[in-house]
């Protein structure tokens, strides 16, 4: 997920996902950065999977797309065949792959992060479990199905990445890692636990197969010009009972508002439809 830093202005998973609470944040001045060129072949693979090729960044052996989605080499080589799920024009979307073998308990562990991150993890898990879905989450001391780790990275291109994660595997397992930014410009020197909870909630949404709510127009939460994340030509399925207009309160918006966003009524419809 990104948060606009507003200068003068988060596998074998099929695809990694971002969180638009503004998983990005705006800053007072642009940051100096060293960019690694991404080849045309890789950009085509990213586009074929249905992701935007704007501002793609190489991160180790992976590629960060759409602000908070990590794509691995396995993701890039995996063909997508199933339809994407769509809720109206600017509503919730899912990836091709979903978590299988339901009902199921997914374990979540966190390591080498301050206590406030651990508290936020427990809170995010509790929010999901309160919905009584066929997916349950359980915090464990280590080795979770989803492991939360930290990284430290300042602003880039007018945004700062708050967290990143990926999408479920073709075998039906959740994406296995969430990375949370410990840079002071992401959450400040004394992070607000509710804000952290909302970002983790968003990144867990990616891990179980949700794309950004404003998938068709990221400008809704991120600002700037209209930007479509792409559909990869694999179609979309509307979820009955959901609105046809943009939903400002959704937990899966591409960019963060810097506030504590949790599930709204339409988010709950989408979660109950899938799980």
Walk me through this protein's architecture.
The radius of gyration is 17 Å and the shape is globular. It has one domain (2-274): Collagenase (Catalytic Domain) (3-Layer(aba) Sandwich), CATH 3.40.390. Residues 4-23, 25-34, 81-90 and 226-237 have low confidence and may be disordered. Helix 3 (115-129) crosses helix 5. Helix content is 23%, strand content 20%. A 5-stranded mixed sheet has the order 9-8-10-13-12, with helices on one face. It has a 4-stranded mixed sheet with strand order 14-7-6-15. It has a 3-stranded mixed sheet with strand order 2-1-11, with no helix packed on it. The protein contains 7 helices and 15 strands. The chain has 275 residues and is of the alpha/beta class. It has helices at residues 40-48, 73-77, 115-129, 184-187, 193-207, 219-222, 265-274; strands spanning 2-5, 24-26, 57-59, 62-65, 69-71, 84-86, 93-94, 104-110, 135-139, 146-151, 159-161, 163-164, 177-181, 210-211, 236-238. Residues 1-22 form the signal peptide. Keywords: Signal.
Strand and helix layout:
Layout: E1 2-5, E2 24-26, H1 40-48, E3 57-59, E4 62-65, E5 69-71, H2 73-77, E6 84-86, E7 93-94, E8 104-110, H3 115-129, E9 135-139, E10 146-151, E11 159-161, E12 163-164, E13 177-181, H4 184-187, H5 193-207, E14 210-211, H6 219-222, E15 236-238, H7 265-274
Parallel strand pairs: 1-2, 6-15, 8-9, 8-10, 10-13
Antiparallel strand pairs: 1-11, 3-4, 4-5, 6-7, 7-14, 12-13
Helix pairs in contact: 3-5
Query: Care to count the β-strands?
Result: 15
Q: Classify the helix fraction into a percent range.
A: 10-25%
How many helical elements? 7
Secondary-structure-derived class:
alpha/beta
Regions with little confidence, pLDDT below 50 for 5+ residues: 4-23, 25-34, 81-90, 226-237
At the first level of CATH, the class is: Alpha Beta
InterPro entries: MetalloPept_cat_dom_sf (IPR024079), Peptidase_M10/M27/M57 (IPR024653)
Keywords: Signal
Protein name: Protease
Signal peptide: 1-22
């Amino acid at each position: 997920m990104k948060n606009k830093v507003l200068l003068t202005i988060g596998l074998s998973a099929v695809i990694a996902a971002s969180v638009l609470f503004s998983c990005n944040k705006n800053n007072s001045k642009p940051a100096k950065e060293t960019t690694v060129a991404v080849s045309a072949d890789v950009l085509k693979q990213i586009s074929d999977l249905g992701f935007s090729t704007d501002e793609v960044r190489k991160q180790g052996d992976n590629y960060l797309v759409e602000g908070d989605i990590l794509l691995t080499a396995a993701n890039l080589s995996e063909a997508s065949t199933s339809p994407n799920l769509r809720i109206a024009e600017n509503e919730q979307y899912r990836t091709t792959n979903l978590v299988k073998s339901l009902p199921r308990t997914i374990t979540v562990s966190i390591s080498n992060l301050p206590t406030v991150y651990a508290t936020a993890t427990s809170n995010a898990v509790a929010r999901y479990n309160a919905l009584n879905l066929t997916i349950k989450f359980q915090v464990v001391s280590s080795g979770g199905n989803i492991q939360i780790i930290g990284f430290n990275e300042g602003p880039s291109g007018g945004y700062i990445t708050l967290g990143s994660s990926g999408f479920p595997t073709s075998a039906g397992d959740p994406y296995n890692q969430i990375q949370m930014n410990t840079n002071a410009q992401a959450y400040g020197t004394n992070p607000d636990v509710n804000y952290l909870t909302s970002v983790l909630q968003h990144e867990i949404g990616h891990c179980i197969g949700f794309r950004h709510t404003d998938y068709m127009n990221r400008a809704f939460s991120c600002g700037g010009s209209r930007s479509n994340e792409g559909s990869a030509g694999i179609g979309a399925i509307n979820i009955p009972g959901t609105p046809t207009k943009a939903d400002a309160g959704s937990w899966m918006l591409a960019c963060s508002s810097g506030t504590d966003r949790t599930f709204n009524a339409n988010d709950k419809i989408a979660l109950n439809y899938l799980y």
